[in-house]
Amino acid sequence: MSKNVLIVSVHPDDETLGCGGTIFRHQEMGDKVSCVFITSGNSHQNELINKLDEAYNFEKVYNLQLPEITLQDVSLSKIIPLISDVFKKVEANVIYLPNRFDPQSDHRRTFEACLACIKTFRYPFIKKVLMMEIISETDFAPALPENMFIPHVFVDISNHFDKKIEILKFFESELFDAPYTRSIDTMTAYNRYRGSQINAHYAECFMLIKEIL
Q: What residue ranges define each of the domains in the chain, with the CATH number in brackets?
């Protein structure tokens, strides 16, 4: 039975860095994948979102255009209803969120707002919630026990990794050369390492917050 999947992307590129291959894997299984972009980003955001929509063939795209960098200054009472409305419109069964401890404050604020929108008694259609591992964010969190990324769910993206890298090149102006973390070379190594943990060529992994069977 197909599922409604929603990717919560704080900034354009988070969806690709965190679960680009997983998006294609869901679609391969017949799931309908939508994406909500939280912040306004740069002046080329609308053009970039259109390119991402075409590349991923999303079921639906939402662009909330909340302020970038200063999202933490926006009241949760404003953010939560916007996110809640998207969750309800999609009737999302599976949701991918940014990590709660990412150093980027927009990620943390988005996660905080999403927590109010995954309560089972208000959103009974939500059956699975996961946090993404976003390179150059999740891996930069202070190495403290409460910040550790402990993967529970691995997705084999071997058949879709090349498409993920092609889409990642949309963000060429924000990428660096190796050995910097935010590079094609490092992303390749990272997904290859995650793949080796499940005997696959490439994989993405996630922390499971909730699953209802």
A: 4-156+205-211 (3.40.50.10320)
Residues 143-186: pLDDT tens digits?
A: 888 888 999 999 999 999 999 999 999 988 777 787 878 889 99
In order, the DSSP letters of 67-135 are: PSS-GGGS-HHHHHHHHHHHHHHHT-SEEEE--TT-SSHHHHHHHHHHHTT--TTT-TT--EEEEE--T
In angstroms, the CA 141 to CA 3 distance is: 32
For residue 19, the 8-state DSSP code is H
Residues in CB range of 184: below 8 A, 6 or more apart: 165, 168, 169, 175, 178
Q: Which amino acid is at 52?
A: L
Residue 7 pairs with which residues in a beta bridge? 35, 96
pTM score, two decimals?
Answer: 0.95
CA-to-CA distance for 92 and 75, rounded, in angstroms? Answer: 24
Query: pLDDT tens-digit profile of 59-115?
Result: 999 999 999 999 999 999 999 999 999 999 999 999 999 999 998 999 999 999 999
Helix, strand, coil shares of the chain, percent, nearest 5, are 40, 20, 40
- Rounded distance between C-alpha atoms, residue 130 and residue 126, angstroms: 11
Residue 18 · residue 133 · CB < 8 Å? yes
Short-list 173, 152, 188, CA closest to 20: 188
Q: Please name which of 81, 95, 113, 126 lies closest in space to residue 18, comparing C-alpha atoms.
A: 95
